[in-house]
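Structure catalogue
Derive tokens from sequence
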Amino acid sequence: MKDILHSYFRAAQGRQIINIYFKCWALVLPVTSFLVFPSIQGTTPAYLMAFLSVPLILFAAPIPEVRNYFWVLFLICLGYITLSAVSQFIISVGPPIDLSSLPLVDPLSLSRRFLLRPTLFSQSLYLLAAILAFLFVRQWYHKSWDSYIFAGILLLVAYGFYEVFYYWITGTSGDFISNRTFNFGYWGSSTHIIDLAGLSMLRMKSLTGEASMFAFTVLPYWVFAIHKKRIIIAGILTLALLFSTSTTAILGMLIYTGVLIISNKINWKYLAGLSAVFVTIAIIKFDTVFSVLNELVFKKFSTTSISGNVRITNFLDSVNFWIQASLPTKIFGLGFGYIRSTDFLSTLLVNNGLIGLVIFLLFFTYPILALGGSPKDFALKAALIILAVTMLISVTEYTYLPTWLFAGIAYHQLSAHVSYPPKIISRSVD
């Protein structure tokens, strides 16, 4: 009896430690432009806490939960190493491949190695941090974490509003925290200005490095807030998405609207009313509306802007490379982390082949199909749909931890009430 009580209290204390750890982690989870060690890429507070979560689990979690955690981690790592080894073997025995047309993570001017390129290992570390975050949340998520999850995104958004207001007052960025240099060649504190109908605006990016990445980060929190009925938080996040002036934000909102329509979760009268208001405004202020849409949408899907030209060129170059590759390379790819196109679809095809694309689709599709119909379950499904589609079309930042946070919550929900194989059910666990 004494041993049972001792085990119970140890488990309770361990659970408390895990809860406290994640609540601190949630506050910095969305931050990507600040490095604890400025000279070492990837040392954001969130990534470091992902790696530190492993010894914490060994210290605090009950033995059965530790075994389950490490067993799943082992299977994931085994599968990843196997696929990587196969892709490297295929390209090692095949004829030389010309990489010059591809948007490599590290250009050929930095490394001309073809086999076991350095980015295979560096990008794998980023992915490992994301997997550790996913497994941590999947195993130990509790609804009491939600307040801290929202606190983390509100801190990020608050800093973004500070930057916008500082720019309006001074004409310069007030970012004094970012210290990371991104692969795109700019500092996290650089300003991104857009001119909309004669109004000069700082695109809200906060501590994410770039406006589209900011929108990608905020979108799942936004959907989660709406369906958790955190109206004030949802309103603040809506305003932040608009201030990002990002095509990703528009895309995410349109996808969410489509999900609501398909799921019959929206009143058609409200939808018709909003459409009528938009059409009226577009007619009255046609020049202004066209200027905004042209800047945010049309240019991105044409070659009239640098961004649009780069996106189309990268996509076509990557897809053409995959089409012309040998059959084994089509299936297994070159290896994880070789290229980073401006869309994840072509990035996956070149890096990980058809197998990588199938794994990605299954990872997101499974909870979307299996979760129930409660507000929380629906929010998670909508968030995963938005994340998956925006990644495939326009965002390649697969290691941004909010993606893995919400995937972890979704899989935790599944572990609580889904039988195997997956089937659509209505019962939910909060």
Remarks:
- The first helix runs from residue 2 to 28.
- The CA atoms of residues 185 and 286 lie 37 Å apart.
- Confidence is low (pLDDT under 50) at residues 418-430.
- DSSP finds 15 helices and two strands in the chain.
